[in-house]
Amino acid sequence: MGLFARLKSDFLYVSGVLRALRRVTRVAKDPELTFPAVMEGLAARFTNRVALIGEGEQLTYGEYNARANSYARWALANDIAKGEAVALLMHNRPEYLVAWLGVTRAGAVCALLNTHLAAAALAHCLNIVAPKHIIVGADLVDALETARPHLENPPKIWICGADGEDPRSMESALESFSRAPLEAGERRALSQDDPCLFIFTSGTTGLPKAANVNHYRVLAIMNGFSGATNARADDRIYVCLPLYHTSGGVLAPGTALTVGGSVVIRNGFSASAFWSDLVRHECTMFQYIGEMC
Q1: pLDDT tens for residues 19-39?
Q2: In this structure, what DSSP letter does residue 169 have?
Q3: Which of 50, 165, 240, 261 is the most exposed place for a label (fewest CB within 10 A)?
Q4: In terms of Cα–Cα distance, which of 198, 31, 215 is closest to 105?
């Protein structure tokens, strides 16, 4: 690498670090600031801008935030206490991010379950966070059933994508709850010290362990990477990593969402579809895990 190229590279690196530090410092200065609160402001500012794009569906910022309000009211109506866990077992789709935003807005902690687990391993994850409720995608109900014999206290099951007549239908349950902003009496005080997500380790060295990720870390991760990449409102980030991981479910979406950008969500990586997806959705960024040679 020549001198000019080296200097340019160093300048870009230092600029990214400084942007990240500025954004994270702003987060740290307001201990009451959380992602659910940030999203309310973004929804007011970018109401009709597309926030989440899935396979055959999309949600604007206004729709994303409003639907999350229904989840928050669902949690309150089911007496889910502040700090209690609600488990989420669902493949990549916009509803995934909607669910955990709404659950955490109500003060609960969303446990993001690995969709490749079943039987005793899945039951282990549920047992250590002890949720009273689990939101599961219809295509993962069978996997959840294999864990049932190993559960200490089976949670109540709510199914996304269930038949409308099924009493466990999450969509039917949400229909009875308003999407309007939460009233003062419905809001639980949240601070950055409060737990937000349980994100599990891969389990390669034993059974998975649950990392307790508080609201500060969620917002700091999002803003740190948004600053480092100099993300803007006209950016679209492509996410094909699992949403149950920190990288795919917090870092990548937050990079775009914190500045009014869009998140394109695919259920898993496809080598044959990757570049065509980027072109079709006009993506300007993508997130991956790996090393550069």
Answers
A1: 889 999 999 999 999 999 999
A2: B
A3: 165
A4: 215
Name the phi and psi angles at 203, rounded to 5.
85, 15
For 198, other C-beta atoms within 10 Å of its C-beta total: 23
Chain segment 55-99, per-residue pLDDT in tens: 999 999 999 999 999 999 999 999 999 999 999 999 999 999 999
Whose structure tokens read 């695919």? Answer: 266
Q: Are 101 and 64 in contact (CB under 8 A)?
A: yes
**Number of neighbours of residue 126 by Cβ within 10 angstroms:** 25
In this structure, are strands 262-265 and 156-160 parallel, antiparallel, or unpaired?
Answer: unpaired
Cα(139)–Cα(55) distance, rounded to whole angstroms? 16
Locate all alpha helices (DSSP H) within 106-149, ordered by sequence. 119-129, 141-147
pTM, to two decimals: 0.93
Any idea which residue has 């400084």 for tokens? 18
